[in-house]
């Protein structure tokens, strides 16, 4: 009887010891697995220093393909590939772009090239061209190949003084902004000088016109117009089209006012 009790106690002790060893091994295995999982996880690569609202740098290389402009930007000591909807830019320009989504090992079929890392940005801050009106090295301004981002951004031309259009529904640029609520959805006529042109965006040409009215601090000096016409930059034109208000094209591109599908005289 005593022998049987001793045997039972011994078996219990062995079982407890085995359970302890198993738990210890499991804990060690868990630590190893956790360490392996951490070490094998892909590292988040900081491709270039970026501000919270923009991505800026000097263009080292550029090419257009498939409706996009590809740019190799030099940002401090780093270099970064960025793609934006096609815009006018050249080597040596300083650009300021909106942040976008980074893609790894992206294959461009039109370029027959794979980019190890590339950021797809909606375009310049404010929708401007790389050097519109500010010169190489200046912040983006003017109309590139994308709509304006929340505000008018074409540089103001203080020398422009254009007489107001005549006839019904005629307004100055500043009046368009002031009377937007009552004019929305109606035909308007505005005479002004074309200061920027972007071709073939969403099947239309996008132009900025100014007539010398309005002010930079009020944001009412520049009017964006979409049209099938192709006026030359610098031309004085009269546009007639429907006024839209608070127009949102997505990707953060929003207009307080815009004249759409205008005829150009």
Q: How would you describe what is shown here?
A:
With 265 residues, the protein is α+β, with helices and mostly antiparallel strands. Among the domains are: 55-127, OB fold (Dihydrolipoamide Acetyltransferase, E2P) (Beta Barrel), CATH 2.40.50; 170-264, OB fold (Dihydrolipoamide Acetyltransferase, E2P). The protein has helices at residues 2-40, 173-178, 180-183; strands spanning 55-65, 68-75, 78-85, 94-97, 101-108, 113-120, 170-171, 187-201, 204-210, 223-227, 236-250, 253-264. The chain has a six-stranded mixed beta sheet, with no helix packed on it. The chain has a five-stranded mixed beta barrel with strand order 8-9-10-12-11. A hairpin with a 2-residue loop joins strand 11 (236-250) and strand 12. Mean pLDDT is 73; it is low at 16-53 and 128-153.
* Sequence of strands across the biggest β-sheet: 4-1-2-3-6-5
CATH topology of the domain at 170-264: OB fold (Dihydrolipoamide Acetyltransferase, E2P)
In terms of DSSP E residues, the strand content is 35-45%
**Series of secondary-structure elements, N-terminal to C-terminal:** HEEEEEEEHHEEEEE
Under CATH at level 1, the class of the domain at 170-264 stands as: Mainly Beta
- Gyration radius (Cα, Å) is 31 Å
Number of helical segments with 4 or more residues: 3
State the helical fraction: 10-25%
CATH architecture of the domain at 170-264: Beta Barrel
Structural class: alpha+beta
């Amino acid at each position: 009887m005593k022998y049987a009790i001793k045997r039972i106690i011994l078996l219990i002790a062995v079982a407890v010891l085995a359970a302890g060893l198993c738990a210890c091994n499991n804990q060690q295995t868990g630590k190893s697995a956790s360490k392996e999982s951490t070490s094998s996880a892909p590292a988040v690569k900081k491709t270039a220093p970026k501000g919270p609202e923009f991505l800026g740098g000097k263009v080292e290389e550029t090419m257009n393909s498939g409706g996009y402009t590809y740019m190799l930007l030099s940002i401090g000591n780093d270099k970064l590939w960025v793609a934006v909807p096609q815009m006018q830019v050249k080597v040596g320009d300083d650009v300021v772009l909106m942040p976008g989504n980074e893609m790894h090992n992206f294959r461009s079929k039109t370029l027959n090239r794979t980019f190890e890392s590339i950021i797809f940005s909606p375009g310049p801050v404010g929708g401007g061209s790389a050097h519109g009106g500010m010169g190489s090295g200046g912040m983006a301004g003017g109309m590139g190949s994308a709509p304006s981002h929340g505000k008018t951004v074409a540089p103001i031309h203080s020398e422009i003084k254009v007489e107001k259009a005549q006839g019904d529904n005629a307004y100055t640029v500043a009046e368009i902004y002031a009377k937007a609520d009552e004019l929305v959805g109606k035909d308007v006529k505005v005479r002004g000088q074309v200061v920027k042109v972007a071709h073939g965006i969403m099947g239309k040409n996008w132009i900025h016109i100014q007539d010398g009215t309005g002010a930079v601090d009020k944001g009412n000096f520049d009017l964006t117009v979409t049209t099938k016409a192709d006026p030359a930059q610098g031309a004085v034109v009269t546009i007639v089209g429907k006024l839209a208000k608070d127009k949102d094209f997505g990707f953060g591109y929003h207009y307080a006012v815009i004249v759409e599908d205008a005829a150009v005289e």
